[in-house]
Specification:
Layout (H helix, E strand, L loop, with lengths): L1 E7 L5 E7 L6 E6 L9 H9 L6 E5 L16 H17 L5 E7 L2 H6 L8 E5 L22 E3 L4 E5 L3 E4 L1 H8 L3 H9 L5 E6 L5 H10 L4 E6 L11 H16 L1
Parallel strand pairs: 3-4, 3-5, 5-6, 6-10, 10-11
Antiparallel strand pairs: 1-2, 2-4, 7-8, 8-9
Helix pairs in contact: 5-6
Length: 253
């Protein structure tokens, strides 16, 4: 069964979410998308089809959306994302009555979880998480294909053209510059829940993610998916990602 969930946020905002649940499962995975992204990002959407068949309901949250009273990306920072992940955990436990709540975040969904009160969850899986935010919004192009973010005064935003326009607020850019791998390690150290890193072997985050893993408290796990790029889009790689996550969460149950 699939249904929309509207989680109330401060100032009349709404965290639009989609619950997928089979039978009366009391175990929930909150799925956190990347940047820019939504609950329709392929690993997130596909996960909502995979896990309910295996005993875990899923809640796909939209950290920003086009619907009325949703947050807009230009109003957000990663701290905002983290606060909303925390609210999703709280709502899922108190209103939706789930007993075990797990977090899974892809790409920028990883730091969004690190900025949350992840200790309110029962366990975490980070899917090729963005592991050095200071590298993510270059204002000077470092090499061909890596576009620089230029300030757009009418929008009051930093904008890059990757074939489609990506725009972030000055506040998010400043925040990212302060959160290198070294600074993210301090957030990881605050987590005292089982945490897993599932890394794309052909992505760019393996080395930095290994440093975050080194800072993590026990219990923890580090898995590399051979031949996978960042989105795990290669044939069979998404299923390998989901299976590694499922095995990890079942250990915690």
């Amino acid at each position: 069964m699939e249904r929309e969930i509207r989680i109330p946020l401060p100032e009349g905002k709404i965290l639009y979410s989609v619950l997928n649940q089979k039978s009366d499962s009391k175990n929930l995975i909150i799925l956190v998308h990347g940047l820019p992204g939504s609950d329709l990002d392929h690993p997130i959407f596909a996960a909502s089809r995979y896990f309910p068949k295996r005993g875990f309901a899923t809640l796909r949250i939209n950290l920003y959306h086009w619907k009325p009273h949703a947050r807009k990306l230009l109003e957000c920072t990663t701290k905002t994302h983290g606060e909303d992940v925390t609210r999703a955990i709280d709502y899922s436990r108190k209103k939706l009555k789930f007993k075990k709540i797990f977090l899974a975040g892809h790409s920028w969904g990883g730091p969004s979880i690190l900025f949350s009160d992840a200790n309110q969850s029962d366990g975490i899986s980070l899917w090729d998480p963005s592991s050095d935010l200071a590298r993510c919004f270059p204002v000077k192009s470092r090499k061909p294909g890596i576009e620089a973010y230029a300030y757009n005064k009418p929008l009051n935003a930093y904008v890059a053209d990757y074939g489609s326009i990506t725009a972030i607020s000055p506040a998010m850019l400043r925040e990212a510059r302060k959160h290198s791998t070294f600074k993210l390690k301090s957030l990881v150290r605050k987590i005292h829940r089982p945490i897993q890193f599932v890394i794309a072997q052909k992505g760019i985050w393996k080395k930095a993610a290994k440093k975050l893993f080194g800072a993590a408290n026990e219990s923890k796990s580090f898995t590399v998916i051979p031949g996978a790029f960042h989105s795990f889009q290669e044939e069979g790689k998404e299923i390998e990602l989901f299976k590694a996550t499922l095995d990890w969460f079942r250990k915690i149950k």
